[in-house]
Structures are given as structure tokens and as C-alpha cells.
Specification:
heterodimer, A: alpha+beta, Rossmann fold, OB fold (Dihydrolipoamide Acetyltransferase, E2P), six-stranded mixed beta sheet, five-stranded antiparallel beta sheet, 10 helices, elongated, B: mainly alpha, MetI-like fold, 2 domains
Chain lengths: ~350, ~325
């Protein structure tokens, strides 16, 4: 079992309130990702669950038991750090066996468990090496191995892939996903990389300066962001946010879009993702625009266009086009995919 | 006027050194260019020209004294008549010499170990209490006091007045206050060695503590947190994670203090002058060399024994240093 519950959890660093009251239930076997910009408190929250930071107010429950004042060692969790945090003087084998050794396991039990885990992580051939002789990816595997060996209630990951290069990160991401399927254990994963969040998570928690902005499945967050913050944070490239009045007043916008926008009240901004705008011939579509920057990425091309008072609009399109800078074009919006945000930034579609 | 003289000497000295290098280099290029067709940069003489001043100083102030000491140890008290190994034979049979060797060993075992242990413990604990910085300052302060100065201070601590008198030494004052009898601490054979060692420990613990404090800061916080999450107690973390992390620092401090202890002299001279069984090699050497008319033969012999003790540690230290450089 490995369910974790946070009840009105708050955290102050002296006068600074970094976690502003979080209620969250993490189910057994769930892969939960905490995302947010740097300084939003995601790492602090994870460290509070792990017991490395005190909880100023509220309660943390593991499997229904209040552990708020338990030291880290009594919580039965394991953690993987961004810097790997391996013990430099111990071999791979000893590093992975350390949690079992502190738990007072017998030598042959430790050996068996470590060997089994080493095999899963493809570390069998490195068992007598010191961490400094390993590559970054191998070190992170050892760190993961160290967290697996003692069957923790839940795994905590603090940006475990951030120190790896891009290619390795993609590989390790896949391995983590497989590992989760295999172990079926609860995992809480902190990252600022939304691709990691989208691909790994069962549910994502988006944090914004110490409070939860939205919780949901990746699909849920992408299709129905509850507010401007989530709308802009999830999705790459970012969702286009256009001031409602600018659209309404612009002479570049046609009647159909104008009439459609009139169906909603109290709208301050509209949002549309770059993939939900199509480039059409000049004079057609909803908005007249001029291409400005063309970013060729291989499979996709991002086009940034200037559209009068609307400002720069980013569009994602396929790469087989003949676009060039300064071309006059038309933009066709997928009307059903437009998000409406009120003055407070709340999505009023939902 | 004296200040003016001083300036003149500095200018003369600096320009003499400069002109040595410039002129020697120029002469080298001129001569080598004349007699050899090889590239001037490849010359094997140039390094020697530049190293010569340092080598000469080394020769005069290190090699010569050592070889002269070795020579003197085979001669009589005036250094005139060759007496073979008689000085060594004397040393082996001399009770003071034996006592000194024994005491030096005692110092060697107790002082570096205690300093390292105390320094590490204090450095670790001081980080956990709010008055840690204050405590560290107090413990570091004796570092600024010379051995002789410290001995004077501790002489007062151990000061003895006959029973019934007012005790001005704090140790006896405390003991008398609690109803005990005052003792002449530095005159109690065997144990008085430890009372002298306390002075060295008092001074050197500050050094060990400061270096350990810095080394402790270098341990990544995440590694300690990982150990905490892995279920290790603070004691276990100290012995299994922190001590291995500090192993190199421990060795450095231990050897530094060991070498210092081998040469211990001032404290013994100022406190007991080797009486009541506290004699150490350096003080014994000083005694024979310069007191009661002087005996350069026996003094030199004792000096060589001190050197013999220091050399293995120095070699080991240099090797370790070289290995660290190569890594």
C-alpha cells in the first residue's frame, strides 16, 4: 500500500509563506507529477512529504497514519535526488545495499536483493565500481536502484533527470515509465519539464506560487486548463493568449469570428493553441496576417505572424509549405478549440 | 637615516637578484649559441641556471647542517676527536634518553589522536547549536598563543601552594573548594606528561576544528539527506558517511600535528625542563648541546633520532600529496 494524503499543508520559511495550504490525495500505485515554474514550491512540498522539511501547519498521512512529525527514516519512503546523492566512497553494490544495511538485513538477503535490482537496471557489470567511474545515466540508475531495493511505500523523485543530457533524458524517462508499470508503486515526481510531466504522469499537479492551480490527467490539463496559468504552462509552444478587445476592435478580423466571440460574456482574453490555427490563402480565414518569423523544426514548423492589434500569433503547421517572411496570409481558427478567460484568468468554458 | 638605508638595501637586493637572472640568461644564450648548433630552447643548462640560487640556499641551510650533524655525532664533545659509535652506545644506555623516547611515543599517540577526535567532534556538534559560533571562537583562540605563552598560562592553572594556603592555581582552587587536597600536578611522575599534553591539545584542537568545519561544509547536503531517507540514524551517518568523506582531511590534520608533536620542546622547557620524568627528545638535545659546557657529539646524536622519527612521516606525506596531485 502507498497512499499519501496532504491535509491543509502549509510551510513558512521564517516570514515567507512558500506552501499556502495544500489538500491532495495521492492514490496507491499512482504516478503523480508536481510541476510548476521554479520557486513555486514543488521541491519543498516533496521534501515535506519525505520529512526533510518540517511542516509548519496541516498534516501528512501515509496509508492513513499521521506522519507529520516523523523523521525521514520512519516514513518508509525513498527518494531520488537531482544530484544523484550517491555515497562516493561506496561501490555501486554497497550504495544500493545501504538502505538494507541500515535496516539491519542479513548479508545474503542484501546481496540477493541488490543483485536482483542491479539486473533490472542493467548494472550487473558495475557492482564493484565507485560512483565517480560511472556516467551520469549510470549514476542515476544506481540512485534509483538504491531507492528500489527496500520496497518503499512510495518513491519520491526530485528532478531526477535534470542533470542528464537531452538524449539520455528521453531514454531514462522511458525506463522510469516501465519501472512504474513493473513495480506498480506510488511515485511522486517533481519536474519543471512539462514533457516529462505529460509523458509520465497519471495525474499532474500544477503548482503556482505555493498553491495548487489545477490537478488532472495530462489530457485533462491540456484540453481543459482551468485558468490562464495552466493554459500557458502546459503545452509547447505556449498557447496564444489574445486580448478580447484587441480582436474585437481589429479591422483584420472577419464577421464570423466576431459573432462567435459575442456568444460569451465577461471575456477578457481568449486562448488558442498554435496547432488549432490553420494558415490559409490571403483574404480567406478569420484573420488577416503577415508572416514574421519561421522556425523550421523538421517535422513541424512554427510560424509567428503579425496580425495588426492582435500582436504576434504563433502557429504550428506541417513542414511541407512554401512560407517565407513577409507573406500576406489568412488565419483560420478552430472555433471549438478556443478558450475564454475572464478578468481573473479563470476559464469560463468549463 | 636607517629608513633610507633600509630602502637602499632592498633596492640593491632586488636588483641583484634580477640582474643575476637577466645576466645569467644572457650569458647562457651567448655561450650556448657560440658552441652549439642546437635550438636554444632545448638547452639543458637553462633550468639549472634558474634553479641555482634556490639549490644553493637549500645546500647551505639544509644539506650542510644535516651532514654536519651526522659528522658531529661520531665525534667527542668538542667535535675534535673521532669516537666512533660511542655516542650512540651512550644514548642507548642513558636513562634520560630512554625516558625521552618513551615520552615522545606517548605524546605521539595521545596528542594527534585527541586533537583530531576533539576537533572533529566539536566541528560536527557546533553546527547544531545556536551558540556554536561562539564556542568555536573560544576554542580557536589559543591558536594565537605561542607555546611558551600557553605554558605560562597553564603553569598558573597547575600552580601549587602548600595545604592551608590560598590556592592561586585554578585547578587546585577548585579541588580545595570541593574539599580535596591540593597537588603539585606537574611533579607527579607519569601523569604529569598528560598535564603537559593538555597544553598542546588546548592549542591544536582549534586548528583541527577549523579545518574540519570547512571540510564538513563541503559534504553535499543531498548526500546526507539521502542517508536520512535511507533510514540511517545520525550516529550511523557520522560513522558511515561523514568520516569516510573526511578521511583525507583527517589524515592531513593527524600528520600535521604528529610532526609538530615530534618536535615538542617549548612546552616541556617552560613547564618542567624535563624534570619529574617529563623529558622529551628535543629538550634533551637542547640540554646536552648548550648547557653545562655543551656536548656537540651527544646533542647531535639526539638530534638525529628526532630527524629519524620525522622522516618516515614526511615521506609518507609527500607520497600522498603526489598521489593527490596525479589524480
Amino acid at each position: 500500500m502507498g497512499s499519501i494524503e496532504l491535509k491543509k499543508v502549509k510551510k513558512w520559511f521564517n516570514e515567507v509563506n512558500v506552501i499556502k495550504g495544500i489538500d491532495l490525495k495521492i492514490y496507491d500505485g499512482e504516478f503523480l507529477v508536481l510541476v510548476g515554474p521554479s520557486g513555486c514550491g514543488k521541491s519543498t512540498l516533496l521534501r515535506m512529504i519525505g520529512g526533510l522539511e518540517d511542516t509548519s501547519m496541516g498534516d501528512i498521512l501515509i496509508d492513513g497514519q499521521v506522519v507529520t512529525n516523523f523523521p525521514p527514516s520512519k516514513r518508509g519512503l525513498s527518494m531520488v535526488f537531482q544530484s544523484y546523492a550517491l555515497y562516493p566512497h561506496l561501490t555501486v553494490e554497497e550504495n544500493m545495499g545501504f538502505p538494507l544495511k541500515t535496516a539491519g538485513e542479513k548479508k545474503n538477503v542484501i546481496k540477493n536483493r541488490v543483485e536482483k535490482v542491479a539486473k533490472v537496471l542493467k548494472l550487473e557489470n558495475y557492482s564493484n565500481r565507485l560512483p565517480k567511474t560511472l556516467s551520469g545515466g549510470q549514476r542515476q540508475r544506481v540512485a534509483i536502484g538504491r531507492s528500489i531495493v527496500r520496497n518503499p511505500t512510495a518513491f519520491l523523485f526530485d528532478e531526477p533527470l535534470s542533470n542528464l543530457d537531452a538524449a539520455l533524458r528521453v531514454d531514462m524517462r522511458l525506463e522510469l515509465a516501465k519501472l512504474h508499470q513493473e513495480l506498480k508503486a506510488t511515485m511522486i515526481y517533481v519536474t519543471h519539464d512539462q514533457v516529462e510531466a505529460m509523458t509520465l504522469a497519471d495525474r499532474i499537479v500544477v503548482l503556482d506560487s505555493g498553491s495548487i492551480s489545477q490537478i488532472g490527467t495530462p489530457k485533462n490539463l491540456y484540453e481543459m486548463p482551468q485558468n490562464l496559468f495552466v493554459a500557458q504552462f502546459i503545452g509547447s509552444p505556449k498557447m496564444n493568449i489574445i486580448n478580447y478587445r484587441d480582436i474585437y476592435n481589429s479591422s483584420n478580423v472577419d464577421e464570423e469570428l466576431r459573432d462567435f466571440l459575442l456568444t460569451k460574456k465577461r471575456v477578457a482574453n481568449i486562448g488558442i493553441r498554435p496547432e488549432h490555427i490553420k494558415i490559409v490563402k490571403n483574404g480567406k480565414g478569420h484573420v488577416k496576417a503577415t508572416t514574421d518569423v519561421i522556425e523550421y523544426l523538421g517535422a513541424d514548423t512554427f510560424v509567428i505572424v503579425n496580425a495588426d492589434t492582435l500582436g504576434g500569433v504563433r502557429i504550428r503547421c506541417e513542414s511541407n509549405n512554401t512560407l517565407e517572411k513577409g507573406l500576406k496570409i489568412g488565419l483560420k481558427f478552430e472555433l471549438s478549440k478556443i478558450h475564454f478567460f475572464d478578468q481573473e484568468g479563470t476559464n469560463i468554458n468549463i | 637615516m636607517t629608513f633610507f638605508n633600509f630602502i637602499v638595501y632592498v633596492v640593491i637586493g632586488v636588483s641583484a637578484v634580477l640582474s643575476y637572472f637577466v645576466l645569467a640568461n644572457w650569458a647562457h644564450d651567448y655561450l650556448v649559441g657560440k658552441f652549439s648548433k642546437k635550438n636554444l630552447q632545448d638547452s639543458i643548462f637553462r633550468p639549472w641556471i634558474f634553479m641555482a640560487p634556490a639549490l644553493i640556499i637549500l645546500l647551505v641551510y639544509l644539506i650542510y647542517p644535516v651532514s654536519e650533524t651526522i659528522r658531529l655525532s661520531f665525534f667527542d664533545n668538542y667535535g675534535r676527536e673521532f669516537t666512533g659509535v660511542s655516542n650512540y652506545v651512550w644514548a642507548m644506555n642513558d636513562s634520560d634518553f630512554r625516558q625521552s623516547i618513551l615520552n615522545n611515543f606517548l605524546w605521539l599517540i595521545v596528542v594527534p589522536t585527541t586533537c583530531t577526535f576533539l576537533g572533529l567532534t566539536i566541528a560536527t556538534l557546533a553546527d547544531r547549536v545556536w551558540w556554536g559560533v561562539f564556542a568555536k571562537t573560544l576554542i580557536f583562540m589559543p591558536m594565537a598563543i605561542s607555546f611558551v605563552g600557553a605554558s605560562v598560562i597553564w603553569k598558573f592553572v597547575y600552580e601549587y601552594r602548600g595545604a592551608g594556603n590560598d590556592q592561586i592555581g585554578i585547578l587546585n582552587a577548585i579541588i580545595v573548594y570541593f574539599g580535596g587536597d591540593p597537588h603539585a600536578w606537574i611533579a607527579i611522575p607519569f601523569w604529569n606528561n598528560f598535564f603537559l599534553m593538555v597544553i598542546m591539545i588546548w592549542i591544536q584542537t582549534g586548528l583541527a576544528m577549523v579545518i574540519f568545519s570547512a571540510a564538513l561544509r563541503a559534504i553535499p547536503e543531498e548526500t546526507l539527506e539521502a542517508a536520512r531517507i535511507d533510514g540511517a540514524s545520525e550516529v550511523r551517518i557520522f560513522f558511515y558517511i561523514i568520516i569516510p568523506f573526511l578521511s583525507e582531511t583527517i589524515v592531513v590534520i593527524w600528520t600535521t600535528i604528529t610532526i609538530l608533536v615530534l618536535k615538542v620542546f617549548d612546552i616541556v622547557l617552560a613547564m618542567t625542563n624535563g624534570q619529574w620524568g617529563t623529558e622529551v627528545l628535543a629538550n634533551l638535545m637542547f640540554d646536552w648541546m648548550f648547557r653545562g659546557g655543551g656536548d656537540s657529539g651527544r646533542g647531535s646524536t639526539i638530534a638525529l633520532f628526532i630527524m629519524l622519527g620525522v622522516i618516515p612521516i614526511m615521506i609518507w606525506n609527500l607520497r600522498r600529496f603526489k598521489m593527490e596531485q596525479e589524480r
